[in-house]
Amino acid sequence: MLTFPPAKINLGLYVVEKRPDGYHNLETVFYPIPLCDTLETKPLLHSNAPYAFQQVGLRIDGEAADNLVVRVYLSMKEEFGLPALDIYMDKHIPTGAGLGGGSSDAAHMMKQLNEQFGLGLSATEMERRLSAFGADCPFFVRERPVLATGIGDRFTPLTLSLKGWTLLLIKPPVHVSTREAYAGVTPRRPDTELADVIARPVTEWRGCLGNDFEESVFAAHPEIAAIKQTLYDFGAVYAAMSGSGSAVFGLFAHPVESAKVVFKDCFVFQQRLR
Fold first, then answer.
1. Which is the catalytic residue, given 37, 91, 105, 136?
2. 31-68: string of b/e by CB count within 10 Å (b at 16+)?
3. pLDDT at 61
4. Beta strand pairing status for 85-91 and 51-57?
5. What is the pLDDT of residue 22?
6. 166-272 falls under which CATH superfamily?
């Protein structure tokens, strides 16, 4: 069985308070984008191994057993008595980018197993189970724009569409740790509610729709700030860092023809949204 786990971008991100458990409450909008990995599962033949995992494409550091795809599979295998599988993943979504690629892969593995083996899990039940693997994993069960609150795990559906806009996404060869990003943020509520800002036309978002991580991340990594400014210089109506970075995206009325030349040392994805 073959599926295509998509990435997401954050439209606005505010760290509103630090919780007693040490986590932070957020307000952000998750929006799915058509940058996708490829995930395939099929029966493992001619082997006594409990599973096989092959990953190609963009490099992922770490052991196979630590990959969220494998962890989801092993948890489901134990509970439902699933057979040994041959798991193949072609990675197109950069890691350490704030795009949720690993979370999307995990969610699609559960959705895939649920359909492939007729497990009968509802979307709500899969969301509940996936929350154990990451706060944003449940988002990728339904893959629709949401206002995310709490630690990024409480979703309110939005009637938001970026159809017709061209998305240009740039991921520089820079890693920003989540710990580093949070260390430079002082929690506060935004002056204007995120839901109110996101309801405005996209052409009014600049200067109103912010990302609290940008100030400290840009100070530590000025090359990321330079990418955002370059996107505006190219004519973006709105540009921002996604999540805690390091990917930066811009929304344009028309494609940027020179993007791959200008950002030749970066990962570049550009597509008109539908």
1. 136
2. bbbebbbbbebeebeeeeeebebebeeeebeeeeeebb
3. 81
4. parallel
5. 84
6. GHMP kinase, C-terminal domain (3.30.70.890)
User: Among this protein's residues, is 8 annotated catalytic?
Assistant: yes
Residue 269: predicted pLDDT: 98
Residues of the chain with pLDDT under 70: none
| CATH code for the part of the protein at 2-157 | 3.30.230.10
The catalytic position among 8, 91, 171, 228 is 8
CA–CA separation, 129 and 149 (whole Å): 18
Residue appearing with tokens 């593995």:
109
Q: Please state at what angle helix 68-80 crosses helix 101-116, rounded to 10 degrees.
A: 30
Catalytic residue status for 136: yes
**Annotated domain spans of the chain:** 2-157, 166-272
State residue 88 phi and psi, 5-degree precision: -125, 130
Return the residue matching tokens 């929304």. Answer: 251
